[in-house]
Design brief:
This protein is an all-beta fold. It has a single domain, classed as Immunoglobulins (Immunoglobulin-like). Helices cover 0% and strands 48% of the residues. It is built from no helices and 10 strands. The strands form 2 sheets. Strands 3, 4, 7, 8, 9 and 10 form a 6-stranded antiparallel β-sheet that branches. It has a 4-stranded antiparallel β-sheet with strand order 1-2-6-5, with no helix packed on it. Strand 5 and strand 6 form a beta hairpin. It starts with a strand and ends with a strand. The model has no long low-confidence stretch (mean pLDDT 90).
Length: 95
């Protein structure tokens, strides 16, 4: 699963794998009103991109944006249809 470190303090780390040549990667979801520039992800030494976000318990939909291309998380807990004919990734935090 590409979501790590679901801790009691609400810190959740999102990880994008498989795009080592991407120049800019962001995380957007219903937790940030699908803002495509709010959560910039940092490249890790292993070529993945990571960002830590504080989230309250609940269920959230999200996607990654790599160089302007919206990408569903292939390792998400589940997927949900979106109104654009594609899918969003879904993560459940806590309870």
């Amino acid at each position: 699963m590409a979501v790590e470190s679901k801790k009691q303090d609400g810190a959740v780390t999102f990880v994008l794998k498989g795009y080592p040549d991407a120049r800019q990667v962001y995380l957007a979801g219903d937790f940030n009103q699908w803002n495509s520039a709010r959560h910039r992800m940092s490249r890790a030494r292993d070529g993945t991109f990571k960002v830590k976000v504080s989230l309250k318990p609940g269920e959230y939909q999200y996607k990654f944006i790599a160089d302007g291309v919206w990408i569903a998380d292939a390792e998400a807990q589940r997927q949900a249809a979106n109104p654009f004919g594609g899918v969003n990734s879904v993560v459940r935090i806590g309870g």
